[in-house]
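Archive entry: two folds, one per protein. Generate the first.
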Amino acid sequence: MPKATERIHDPVQTVRTALTALGAKDTVRVFEEKVPTAAAAASVLGCEVAAITNSLVFEADGEPLLILASGAAKVDTTLVARQLETGKIRRATPEFVLEHTGQEVGGVAPVGHPQPIRTILDSSLRDHRELWAGAGDHNSMFSITYEDLLRITGATELPVR
């Protein structure tokens, strides 16, 4: 495992606090190198790209929609919109993401947002014993099981591809 550093940014502390408040373990690791993509994170963590949980923010009917998708998945927004019976789902702008999550694109965590966000959990992630998700910035990740991620996010399980 790579060496973690002690450098903690405010969004990361917010995620740590949210994890423990939600009854999950604080498994946040902060790395010297950036891990803003699933491929970069998998390389640093020594795991499959499919076990990386991308926190992707979309805009659906003017509201944020957080899709927690496998790093190996390309989200089919038409499929998701049909399943949710919503209008068109669009990728959110970086400004919209920051406004609704308090975190920058590439470091968005599944938790630790100023307000709850409607969340979808990619059901294909169930295939992995351990998942890794962003922890609030480009240098931080945390590990969690599928069941715990589902529980702490209150997500709806759906196939997203």
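Generate the second and append.
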Amino acid sequence: MVDTVTSSTRPKHPYFATLLVLVAVIILCGLGLWQMQRAEQKQSRLEQIEQRSSTARLSLRELLEFEEKRDLPFEVFGAPDPEKVFYLDNRIESGHVGYHVLVPVETDYGVQLINFGWIKAEQLRTQLPEVKIDATAQQYIGVSAVPNINPMVTETATKQDGWPLVIQQIDLPLMSTFLGIQLSPVVMQLSPEHPAGLVRNWKPVVMSPQKHYGYAIQWFGLAIACLVIYIVALLKRNR
């Protein structure tokens, strides 16, 4: 009789709560592992940047022969087209909103798009800051960058818009269409020493590996905390 009463009054196992905790722990651990993977990728990228920074400057033709084309120092000689300038929108520098100024430069080995640097936006969005680009043919030195297309970003510029064009991301095929010419598959980030009057504080790796490791520890810590809280609550419930 005692065993029957004890069995009937024993609380049922909280299967739904257990399932929720299990899903939460799996998700949190997955986020932690993803941050660890991102940290390893950033570390590899930093090592590549350091290694390639000591490479002798390449010509555009030599650079294009590389399978991995980013982070390589190179130089071109050519004349920019100051009438066809792209303003890359929503670039932040020292807490201020502005644009990156991108200009096509005609070289002996094709048209090279050069990022001249950052300029602060005007107070009115309808007014673009004035940039003076010297149209004289000259030497340009910088580092190669390969832009990534973000499918979540919606482009607002159209071919019917007048120059300069305000773009939301660097889409080389689309920009080639706007220009009516084929652009090089890399973008030159102009050297800070070039006297163009714009800010060139290039950050190829925005978030350091240490920050990714820190986020990973936080996610793993949340997973452990979630599991501990569940176990403690379960023990108290059974008592």
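Annotation attached to the second fold: The CA atoms of residues 49 and 71 lie 6 Å apart. The chain has a mean pLDDT of 88.
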